[in-house]
Design goal:
DUF349; DUF349 domain-containing protein; coiled coil; mainly alpha; three-stranded antiparallel β-sheet
């Protein structure tokens, strides 16, 4: 805007009183001081008129983005923020017209949000109807896949009116749970039937094993042949692996000589297996030590190495059950520390410290504070999970969800513990007296 026009705008919407520059009242807002006269009154008025032009450019830019955007709802807070600024922004100009334009944009956005919620409501009602139509299905696998797909679509669908949210969530959840409860009951019945068949096979195995070491060769031979005929008469369909396992046990008991040979081979295998498991344990302990040593390396180098160690871990065979959980937990925590440090460094790069507050000690303190904030957020998530677990009804249909919640709670506890240990590590580096983190 030219200086002459700027001056006219300044006098139209502002004035000088004493050594103060004032904005004239507009709408329901009273006149207010926006600044002081520095030297020349006219230049001071023009200065604040020019500030208004800059503010108007922000409004114009935002409204243009809203006009061309399909997701208008994402701009609501920005519009409200600019409306709030109108009440206190130090400038002179036609704030009333800006307020009206922003108010119109606000209404347009709210209408768009309402339309989206109506659309989301229609989508969720359709998903509920589809889920309810499937809840009595006996096509277990296909229906399971369809319901999983419906659940994904439900999650992806945006929000609806809060007054309807709980009711519709419960309807959808109930429809899904009806099917999965029926599915569970069906397979439990099937399992019970299999169990009765297995019991018959096991009874024959027990009888054959009871005589397998007998030295009454002819009598034992007749007994085992009779048991073989009974085995054939049982029938029934079992899973292949289970059937093979039972048959192998029965067959092994039928031949005394091969049984002796089998015991010998098993003895050899046992010794070999123990050595194999011990070697695997040493390999895994070595990987734990390597992962823990990565804390002394720069994060950008440690992260790919940690991933390499994770890949190496998968190639190592099993260890004894009593050792497995502990060594895995140690390795998991060691790797978690590396990845937590990587996340921390990524967070810090996005939030550089102010100039003059960037010493090594300042950097360490900033990281400690960031970790504390992360712990706070983790504890908030943990509290929500524990609350949900406490509210979960103790019925069989909720066991899968209960297991999932317990797994997440365990993971968050480990995350919190890992971050606390990192804080202690950073404290030692900074020379700060260590205090227990709540």
């Amino acid at each position: 805007m030219e200086t002459k026009d700027l001056s006219e705008e300044a006098h139209k919407y502002g004035y000088i009183e004493g050594n103060q520059v004032w904005l004239k009242p507009f709408m329901h807002f009273p006149a207010r001081q926006v600044g002081d006269v520095k030297e020349v009154p006219e230049e001071s008025l023009q200065y604040f008129a020019n500030r208004f032009e800059n503010f108007k450019l922000k409004v114009d830019g935002l409204l243009e983005k809203i006009e061309t955007s399909e997701n208008k709802g994402s701009f609501l807070m920005k519009v409200l923020h600019l409306k709030e600024q109108i009440e206190k922004y130090d400038a002179i100009g036609d704030f009333e017209s800006l307020h009206q334009r922003l108010s119109a944009a606000e209404e347009e956005i709210k209408e768009a949000i309402a339309r989206n919620r109506d659309k989301n409501l229609a989508t969720k009602i359709t998903l509920i109807q589809q889920a309810e139509a499937l809840q009595e299905s006996i096509d277990w696998q296909e229906t399971t896949d369809k319901l999983k797909e419906l659940r994904q679509n439900w999650i992806k669908t945006g929000p609806i009116d809060k007054a309807l949210t709980e009711e519709l969530e419960e309807r959808f959840k109930t429809a899904v749970e009806v099917f999965f409860t029926r599915k569970k009951d069906f397979f439990q019945d099937k399992k019970d039937m299999l169990s009765r068949t297995v019991d018959k096979y096991k009874a024959l195995i027990a009888q054959s094993e009871a005589v397998k070491n007998s030295e009454e060769w002819e009598e034992t031979s007749k007994k085992l042949k009779d048991l073989q005929n009974q085995w054939k008469e049982i029938g029934g369909t079992l899973p292949r692996k289970m059937s093979n396992d039972l048959w192998n046990s029965f067959r092994a008991a039928n031949n005394h000589f091969f049984e002796r040979l089998k015991k010998h081979i098993n003895s050899q295998k046992t010794e070999s297996k123990d050595k194999y498991l011990e070697d695997n344990l040493e390999k895994k302990r070595s990987l734990v030590a390597q992962a823990e040593a990565l804390l002394d390396e720069p994060v950008q180098q440690a992260v790919p190495k940690a991933k390499e160690l994770q890949a190496a871990w998968k190639k190592v065979g099993p260890v004894k059950q009593e050792e497995s959980d502990a060594v895995w937990e140690s390795f998991l925590v060691a790797c978690d520390k590396i990845f937590e440090l990587s996340s921390l460094e990524h967070f810090m790069r996005k939030r550089p410290l102010p100039e003059g507050k960037n010493s090594d000690n300042d950097q360490l303190h900033a990281r400690i504070n960031a970790l504390r904030d992360f712990i706070k957020y983790d504890k908030q998530e943990l509290e929500v999970l524990e609350t949900n677990l406490g509210r979960l009804n103790p019925n069989p249909g909720n066991e899968a969800f209960r297991t999932m919640l317990e797994g997440k709670i365990k993971n968050f506890n480990r995350k919190i513990r890992t971050k606390n240990e990192l804080i202690e590590l950073l404290r030692k580096k900074s020379g700060v007296q260590s205090n227990k983190i709540a």
